[in-house]
């Protein structure tokens, strides 16, 4: 029988992960979730066939694996509340940005396996990518199981140094939002030029999907893929010159830096050493 998985705090990220799991064939009767809102419990139970609880303690008690999906600011209070129900044979996986392994272990209060992950919402379509790091109590078979879990909703990469989780957050956790914002701007402009919303959305999103597939599936360097489209004195060249004039490297570097700085700030704010 598959391990039972409890998602503590069912919202956007938990839904993205368990939707991907269900689509990959993970049995709904091995998945639990918690929420404080009765309507949401009813909805997820009806819509996805998973068991929803109001009490985190109950879900934790019944689970082999616990996925912590509340907001970083809520993590300490939520974990401490159910800590007396934690067993050493369980595996905990946190998805929270900026909450470090040592803090989670301290709040859980036992020598228990903890994996910190940074997934992203495309997991919901089986197209996620997740950065992972484990604490010293996590053995190789647990790490293998976690890799398989995240493989069922996309791909994953193990990170050696926890400090790099800030960069992972900026590069893949938050990144889908950057791309959505970019497409929003393209669609907005196409509409201003007279194209309808649906046509604009289809053309922009499929251009992005095709370009992403070329990066993933072809071996060519990314700058070569770009050059292949950029005819001298052609149309693309003019668009790219406009990006350079606005210093696109700086725009992106500023955005990633802001993301990393916030992640570091959260690691300090939501730390067990502050208790
Ligand atoms: N969204 C994203 O793209 C990504 C998010 N993350 C991380 O995922 C985590 C969740 O983010 P996200 O899903 O966007 O946030 P959401 O607010 O959508 O989900 C969090 C959920 O937690 C529930 N919750 C809050 N307190 C409790 C409690 N005491 N007991 C049980 N449930 C509770 C809330 O439901 P209710 O109020 O009904 O209880 C809420 O729906 C964060 O830590 C974030 O850093 C990581 C990578 C990507
Ligand atoms: O914005 C956030 O804090 C979360 C973490 C990565 C994506 N969303």
TrEMBL record:
**EC number, as in UniProt:** 1.5.1.2
Q: What is one term from the GO cellular component aspect held by the record?
A: cytoplasm
Q: Where in the cell is it found?
A: Cytoplasm
Name the reaction it catalyses.
Answer: L-proline + NAD(+) = (S)-1-pyrroline-5-carboxylate + NADH + 2 H(+); L-proline + NADP(+) = (S)-1-pyrroline-5-carboxylate + NADPH + 2 H(+)
- The Pyrroline-5-carboxylate reductase dimerisation domain covers 162-266
Q: Which residues bind NADP(+)?
A: 8-13, 35
Q: What is the role of the protein in this entry?
A: Catalyzes the reduction of 1-pyrroline-5-carboxylate (PCA) to L-proline.
The similarity annotation says: Belongs to the pyrroline-5-carboxylate reductase family.
Designated name of the protein: Pyrroline-5-carboxylate reductase
What organism is listed for this UniProt entry?
Answer: Marinomonas alcarazii
Q: What is the lineage of its organism?
A: Bacteria, Pseudomonadati, Pseudomonadota, Gammaproteobacteria, Oceanospirillales
